[in-house]
Amino acid sequence: xxxxxxxxxxxxxxxxxxxxxxxxxxxxxxxxxxxxxxxxxxxxxxxxxxxxxxxxxxxxxxxxxxxxxxxxxxxxxxxxxxxxxxxxxxxxxxxxxxxxxxxxxxxxxxxxxxxxxxxxxxxxxxxxxxxxxxxxxxxxxxxxxxxxxxxxxxxxxxxxxxxxxxxxxxxxxxxxxxxxxxxxxxxxxxxxxxxxxxxxxxxxxxxxxxxxxxxxxxxxxxxxxxxxxxxxxxxxxxxxxxxxxxxxxxxxxxxxxxxxxxxxx
Length: 265
Hints:
Elements: H1 2-18, E1 20-30, E2 35-39, E3 45-49, E4 52-56, E5 61-64, E6 74-76, E7 83-87, E8 92-96, E9 107-108, E10 118-123, E11 128-133, E12 138-143, E13 148-152, E14 167-170, E15 174-178, E16 182-187, E17 192-197, E18 201-207, E19 210-215, E20 218-223, E21 226-231, E22 241-245, E23 248-252, E24 256-262
C-alpha cells in the first residue's frame, strides 16, 4: 500500500514538473522605452519611445516617426526586412525596411474601401495581411500588392458566442485572434481550427508556430489545448511585456530587458 502511495506521489510530481518549461538567465539589458516591441534574429532590439519606433543595433540606433498619422498602435517585426507599422486612429499602415526607411506609401483602408474601423493587423506570408475590423466583426486575409481580399471569415460570434477580439498575432502557418478570455485559431488558408480559454491574457506571441502568453505575471506556452508554465530560473520579474524568438525569451519590466534561454521547449 505504501509503495502504491509513493508511486502516485512520484507520478503526480513528475506530471506537474512536465508541465513546466525551464529556462536559464542569460543577461539583463537596460532599456529606456515606453513600449518594448521585440528582438529580431540578429539580436537587434525594437522599441517605442515618444511615439517613435527605434531599432537598436550593437553600435547604432535607427529611428522612424510620422507625426501625420497619430499614435503607433502596433509594430510587427516578424520580417525585419519588411516591418509593419499600424496606426489605428488613422486606419493606416506602412512598411519599413531594415533601416526603418519607408518601403511603401501609407495605405489607408478607408481609401481602399475596406473598412472604416480597422482594429488589429498582423503579417502573413506572400504579401498578405491578417486584419480584424469591428465594422462587421470578421477576420480577413488581404493582399496589399494586388489590393484583393483572399478570405473573409464568418462573423466571429459564429465561432464563439459574443466574441469580440482586441488583437491578432500570427505565424506564417497560423493566426490567433483573441481577447483576454478567449483565443480563436485559423490556419494559413482561413480554415477555423479551434479555440482556447485564457485567463486575463493581454499579450500573445508566436515563435516557430508555438504560442506564448502572459497570465497574471506568469508566461505560458499553449499547445494542443494544453498550457505549460515557463519557469524563469528563480527570477522574480514584473512582466510589462515580452517577446519570444527561437530559443530565447525577452522580458521587459519597464526599465530593463531580461534575457532567458529555453532549456527545452
